[in-house]
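Protocol step 4 of 6: structure prediction from sequence.
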Amino acid sequence: MNRLIALLAALPLVLVAACGSSDESDAGHGDADVAFVQQMVPHHEQAVEMADMAERADASADVKALAAQIEAAQGPEIATMKTWLDDWDVPSDHAGHDMGDGMMSDSDMTGLAQLSGAAFDQEWLTLMIEHHEGAVAMARTELADGRDARAQKLARQVIADQQREIATMKGLLG
């Protein structure tokens, strides 16, 4: 009888192990996931900052619409990624963020802020293409090296969204 009770008590654990969990975070995260999220947060923050500039720079309707789309997508992703960092008990410090991943320098941002009209559109599109290409490269690294299902899903979304936006921006540049 004691053996039967022990088997019945262990049954829920066996079923959970056999069926897995529907919570994507149960797979765990690794250093690559942390690096991806820590770097993508400031990357997205800069894209949102650039999108805000389009509203103030007398940009074309096409650029303003694209900027609004970028801000609408990346703002919530920032909040989500910050939650993951909190869940992982990892600081959101991104002091080691590499400028080679499409991030604009302070002088790039200052120069962009001083432009308006067609000159702004041209520079904004050129810089945002470079910025998006950096994000796509970061996302591909996450897919290759990461293991957190949520971060992997976000990486696939970043690639799809930003490649589509790059094509749109290239079309606007002519």
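Step 5 (inspection) to follow. Helices lie at 2-19, 31-56, 61-87, 106-113, 117-145, 149-173.
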